[in-house]
Write a structure and sequence with these properties.
Layout (H helix, E strand, L loop, with lengths): L6 H12 L4 H8 L3 H23 L3 H11 L1
Helix pairs in contact: 1-3, 2-3, 3-4
Length: 71
Amino acid sequence: AIAKLPARQRQTYELIKQQGYKREEAADLLKISPETVKYHLDQALKSIRASCMAQSNGSVIAIICCLTLIS
């Protein structure tokens, strides 16, 4: 799901969720505003959530794995 995100959403997700940067730090690195970082992260999380839910077919284990990606 993450690999299929648009580039800016993927970069934002990786910086904040995987590397632990704060929104302001990610904004500086990406040379965009913190509000734009928030927008890209929100969109990325919605896309990941939708992709995971579509692929889970109601499996509790699959849903839990998806939730770890978006928390």
